[in-house]
Amino acid sequence: MGIIRLLPENIANQIAAGEVVQRPASVVKELLENAVDAGAKHIKLIVKDGGKGLIQVIDDGIGMDETDARLSFERHATSKIKSSDDLFRITTKGFRGEALASIAAVAQVEMKTRPHDRELGTLIKIEGSEVKMQQAVQTAAGTSVAVKNLFFNVPARRKFLKSAQVEMRHIIDEFQRVALAYPEIEFTLIHNGNELYRLFPSNLLRRITSVFGNKMEERLVPLNEETEYVKIYGYTGKPEYAKLKRGEQFFFVNKRFIKSSYLHNAVMKAYEGLLQEKRIPPYFIYFEIAPEHIDINIHPTKTEIKFDDEYTVYNILRASTRRALGQFNQMPSLDFDVMPELNLHVPRKTGTKNSEPKINVDPHFNPFKEENARPFAPGRFPDKASRQAIDRFSRFIMPETSFTPVISNDKDSLFDLNREIIEPETETLQWADKIIVVPLPEGIMFVHQHRAHVSVLFDEFYQYLKRGKIPSQQLMFPLHPDLLDTEIGWIEKNRDKFERSGFAWHKEKNNFHFTAIPAGFNEKQAMDFVENLIASLNEDLPEEEDAVNRFLAVSLALSSAVRPGQKLNTEERYNLVKALFRLPEPQFSPSGKRNFVILDENRIEKLF
C-alpha cells in the first residue's frame, strides 16, 4: 500500500536529539564528558546567554584526525564500543555515539581538532546535520567544539527554553557534577566573559570546597568503606547542617553522576533520630564497583543505574554512613569496649518451659460506677495514647475522602460565608496542637491551623508584593548567616527577589550579613525563607511578574506560618479562624489542600 516510509536523515536526527538534547545543559554534559573521555587535563567551558547563544568546550585531549572528526558526527559512531560484550564493561562517560550527531541536528556546530603528533588540524562546520565546510587548519592540540544558536531550526523547542539565568543554573549544575567526579582535572567556566569557576587539580575535599566554598569543609565528615562487592568513599554532612530542601547531594558510580531515590533513602535511614523534620543533609558519596555489576544503559541521559544487587549496596551504604557519623561524634553512641562499666549483664532464667505472665483481675470491678469513671475534664483532651486510639478510630469510620466541606455560594448552602462564622464568645479547642475545633450551629468545623495561617499570610504578602515590596524591619544587630559562597552568590544574582521580599544586606570581602529582614519575621523565619528560596533557584522559577509575586508570597507564608504542634491560646485561635473567613477563597490553601472540613448534624448522628 506504500504507507510505510523511511524518515529523512535530518528528521531522524532531530527526533534522536529530543532524547539527548533537552536544553543547553544537556549539550554541556555531553561535551564535557567527551573531553574527559579524551584524556584531557585542562577543560574550559565558555557560555553566552545561558547557552542559547554559545556553548564551547575546549580541551587538551588526544584530538582526532580528519577522518575521525568527520565520523564523530555520524549517528552511533563511537570509539568506546567494539562488541556487544563491551556494553557490560562500560568505563567511559559517553558510549552511545548519539551526542554529537544529535547536537549537530539542532544547532550550528564548529569543531576544531588536532592530534598531538600532527602539525595541522581539522575544521568542520555543520548546520542542522548538513556539513557546510571541512578543511585543514592551524589549531591547538586537542579539541574545541562550539555550539551556536541551539534549536535554531526547531523554533518550537527554542520557545520553551527558560530565561538565560535559569538555563545557566542548569549548566552550572552539570559543570559541578563533572568537576566533582574528576578532581584531578582542571576546569574553567566562563559566562558572558566573566570567569565563574577556576578549579585547579586537587584532592576530593579541596575540590568540594573549591566548588561550594571553604565553609563546606567544616560541615562534612569522611566516609570510607570497602567490601569485595563495592567500595564507598566520600563525605557526608553533619546533622546540624541539614537543610529543608535538597541542595548538595551527590552520588557518583565509577565517577559518573547518578540520581537514585533508593540510595538517598539509605542515607536518610542512617540519619534516623539525628535530623529535624524534613531536613536533608549534604553528601558527596562515591561508589567504585566492577562494571559488570551495573547497567547504565537504561536512560538516554545516563543518570540512572541499575545494580545487580541493590539490596547489598543499600545496606552497605546505610551502615557505612551511620558508622561515619558515629566515629566523628555526630550521633550518640555507647561503646562498651571503651566503657566496660556499662557492659551490663542481664541474667536469664533457665528452664524448659516459658513462664506465663500473671495478671491480677478484680471480678467485682464495675467501670460504670461513678467513683470508677474517668470522664474527660471539660475543655480538655485525652492523653496521648487515647488521642492516638481516637485518631485511628476516626480514620476508620470517617475516611478523609468522605469529608466534603459544606461551602458554596448557592443560596441553599448550609451556611452563608457572608455572615460571621465565629463569634468572640465561641468556645474553640485545639486538638493535637494542630487542629482548631470550632462548634457551629450547623455542626463542628475542624480547621488545619498551619494551612489556614499560610492562606491568610499568603493573601497579605501577595497584596504587598503587587504594590511593590514587603515592609522591612531594620536589625539592631546584623544577622550573620552561615551560608556557602555559592549561596551568597545566588542571593546577589537574585537581588530583586530578595529585596522585594524585605531583605537588605551588606557584603565586604568574606563578611556577609543581613541588615534588614521582612517585618514581623524573627531570625529563624527569615533564614528559613532564604534557605527555601536558594533551594528553589534549582527549579524552573516563573518569569511573569504576577507568577513571581505568588511564588514569593507562598515562600514567605510557609516560612512564617504557625507550625503543626504549636500551641495557640483562645485569642489566637479566634483571630486565625476569623482572618481565614475574610479571604475571598477560604476553602483551600495556596497548594490546593483543604483548610477546613465541617461535619453537619446528620453526618455526626450517622457515626453512632
Helix and strand layout, with pairings?
Blueprint: H1 9-20, H2 24-37, E1 42-48, E2 54-59, H3 66-71, H4 99-105, E3 108-114, E4 121-127, E5 130-137, E6 142-148, H5 155-159, H6 164-181, E7 186-191, E8 194-199, H7 204-212, E9 220-226, E10 230-237, E11 249-253, E12 256-258, H8 261-270, E13 283-289, E14 294-295, E15 306-307, H9 310-327, H10 384-397, E16 429-431, E17 435-440, E18 443-448, H11 449-467, E19 472-479, H12 485-493, H13 495-500, E20 504-508, E21 511-518, H14 523-536, H15 545-560, H16 570-580, E22 596-600, H17 601-606
Parallel strand pairs: 1-7, 11-13
Antiparallel strand pairs: 1-2, 2-6, 3-4, 3-6, 4-5, 7-8, 9-10, 10-13, 11-12, 14-15, 16-17, 17-18, 18-22, 19-21, 20-21
Task: Explain the overall architecture.
- The chain has 608 residues and is of the alpha+beta class.
- It has three domains: 191 residues, 2-Layer Sandwich (Heat Shock Protein 90); 99 residues, Ribosomal Protein S5, domain 2, CATH 3.30.230.10; 216 residues, MutL, C-terminal domain, dimerisation subdomain (formyl-coa transferase, domain 3, 2-Layer Sandwich).
- It contains 17 helices and 22 strands.
- The strands form five sheets. An eight-stranded mixed sheet has the order 5-4-3-6-2-1-7-8. Strands 9-10-13-11-12 form a five-stranded mixed sheet. The chain has a four-stranded antiparallel sheet with strand order 16-17-18-22.
- Helix 14 crosses helix 15.
- It is globular.
Keywords:
formyl-coa transferase, domain 3; eight-stranded mixed β-sheet; 3 domains; 608 residues; alpha+beta; 22 strands; Ribosomal Protein S5, domain 2
